[in-house]
Design goal:
two-stranded antiparallel ribbon, 415 residues, mainly alpha, 2 strands
Length: 415
């Protein structure tokens, strides 16, 4: 009875012990193997010798791991094609438009909060340089073209000069200026003296003798006008005040001032023939073009130096700060800029990505990041990614140990 009972316990030990031992060995062996991938984190020194299997596999080969991770990512994940696809998704028109709108709003807010007038100073320098240097050269260069401001000058001529007509007050002031300044009696006297030369008097006398008839012929041939004109010239030279007085009375009696007023009031280019108006318009364009070519640079530079650009820039910036049009137009400007960038990227995105890759140096960035990562953090990262899979490997080791132990028990039992 005791012998049978001992046999049962030994048989039971042969059946149970191998699966249990195999499961325990398989479980803890895999768990130890996984732990040895990461631990120990540092090399253990015994004297001058390093203990084998220290540090763990991954810490010991962290530099090579970094290179392998970089190669895997750059050759399989972040390929130029994939980066181009990522760039296309990131640079969609809506995203680009939103980014540009944000930047424009940020710039406008910066301008509004600029208490040191830095923006105004920068704008003043830009306007001053443009007006003094760039603008004169641009206009002179454009003036060499045959169609220089053709439509604009024609519009000025048609809407300003062609419709221009003096008012009664303007005509009266201009007539007074002509009578009192341009041709006063003393000026008329000098003009008359200059005209009554001996040669002109002789010509007038001959013409009157030859071309008149009737009473005028009798006066010209019997009395003669040569002596009368000579006496008139002598009177103008010797009797200045009396001559000026007579000429002044003639201007009044002949109503020359009123005639000037009526003529100036009725003066208008619209009264001229169409052909003459067209010629005047063409001459006006050519005159402006020629004047711009010859004196445009100096005139524009003098005009630019006469402007207070600091004050002008301050007024412009102040207006921009409170302008509702500027705020309302930011969205339209950002949309237009986004479309321009989109057209540019459609053509050159691949080339841009190929140029950016060497600058970013992503492979070296990945290598440096992995190498600088502490073994503890690296273990936590890997465990966080494949924790379930690593635990499954440990359990699988235990299961395989149990299976192998079971086979061993069967073999031992039958043997």
């Amino acid at each position: 009875m005791n012998e049978a009972k001992g046999l049962d316990w030994s048989t039971l030990g042969v059946v149970i012990v191998p699966p249990i031992a195999g499961g325990i060995i398989g479980y803890f062996t895999n768990d130890l193997a996984i732990s040895m991938l990461f631990k120990p984190y540092r090399a253990i020194q015994i004297g001058n010798r390093r203990l084998p299997f220290t540090p763990g596999l991954i810490p010991r080969n962290q530099e090579r791991l970094a290179q392998r991770v970089s190669d895997a990512i750059m050759t399989s994940l972040l390929t130029p094609e994939e980066l181009q696809a990522i760039a296309q998704r990131l640079l969609q028109t809506e995203r680009v438009e939103g980014a540009i709108l944000w930047l424009l709003q940020l710039a406008l807010d910066q301008v509004k909060s600029d208490t040191d007038q830095k923006t105004a100073k920068i704008l003043a320098n830009i306007l001053r340089d443009f007006a003094d240097q760039s603008l004169p050269r641009i206009i002179v260069a454009l003036a060499r073209r045959e169609d220089f401001l053709q439509n604009q000058l024609d519009q000025v001529f048609d809407q300003v000069l062609l419709d221009f007509q003096l008012t009664d007050d303007q005509a009266q002031q201009l007539a007074n200026w002509i009578i009192n300044v341009v041709v006063p009696p003393d000026t008329l006297r000098l003009i008359l003296i200059d005209f009554l030369t001996d040669r002109n008097i002789a010509i007038l006398d001959q013409d009157l003798r030859a071309k008149t008839s009737g009473t005028y012929w009798l006066v010209a041939n019997v009395v003669g006008i040569q002596s009368a004109l000579i006496r008139l010239r002598t009177f103008c030279i010797e009797e200045k005040q009396a001559c000026n007085a007579i000429l002044g009375e003639l201007l009044v009696s002949l109503a020359i001032r009123q005639r000037f007023i009526e003529w100036l009031t009725s003066l208008s280019l619209q009264n001229l023939p169409v052909r003459t108006v067209r010629q005047l318009r063409q001459q006006f364009r050519e005159s402006v073009r020629g004047y711009t070519q010859n004196k445009g640079i100096s005139v524009l530079q003098n005009l630019g130096t006469s402007v207070d650009w600091d004050e002008s820039a301050t007024l412009i910036v102040s207006r921009l700060r409170t302008s509702e049009v500027v705020v309302a137009s930011l969205k339209d400007v950002s949309a237009d800029l986004a479309l321009i960038i989109e057209r540019y990227l459609e053509r050159d995105l691949e080339m841009i990505v190929m140029k950016v890759l060497p600058i970013l140096n992503l492979d070296q960035v990945i290598i440096d990041r992995v190498k600088r990562t502490e073994p503890e953090a690296l273990e936590a990262a890997i465990q966080g990614i494949v924790k379930t899979e690593l635990r499954a490997i440990v359990i699988l080791g235990g299961v395989l140990g149990v299976v192998i132990g079971t086979f061993q028990s069967v073999i031992l039992l039958f043997s």
